[in-house]
Amino acid sequence: MSLTLLHYSDVETALDDPQQCARLAGAIDARRDGDTVVVGTGDNTAPGALPLATDGRVALEFFAAVAPDVDTFGNHDFDFGVDTARELADDAPQTWLCANATVDGERFADAETVPHTVVETDQYRVGVVGVAHPETDEINPAAAPVDFDDPVPAIRESAATLRERGVDFVVVASHCGEETAESPARPTRTPSWAGTSTTCTSRRSRTPSSSGRAVPPGTSRRFGWGRTPT
Q1: Alpha carbons 43 and 173: distance in angstroms, whole number
Q2: What per-residue confidence (pLDDT) applies to 1?
């Protein structure tokens, strides 16, 4: 059985509509099997009326229904300040990833997040590293206390660590948008789709694609939807 990645992002104001959230949760559940990794890539706690009324905590009910494996920070996840972003990451059921954000030289939310993780499926060990947009603090002034670094060195460092741990695939969960989405795995141009991306690289004979078809080892493919972060 092939590895399947189910990727969602920018839930945002859909949190105000239980039917929209239920449809998304149902669609994910219907496509999930024992070799599926569910990846969120930010802006899944805000904005919206209910997120505003609950400081983003309404998203926790959505996360409980979907049971994603990982998520990372988008610019809107800081709408209620950096402390709330940390709290939401800590309280969410999924592992929250952030490899390229620091405060005073220390990794941001070190106790609540990790830079990368390994997700075990029935057949595969999948390494996932998460990165935020390097201009998150400019896009959202509420994130100003945090420094967001170039994601590429952080991705390369985490990818090397994950490969040393013997993972079958390395996945990058990114809220960077197309302009920063060129693959750090290899300086080779590969197909891309505009918007928030999940970049996959393979150390074995195949890499999962959005269509379920394999791509050659050493290459990467991005898939997702959305826009450059706003």
Answers
A1: 13
A2: 77
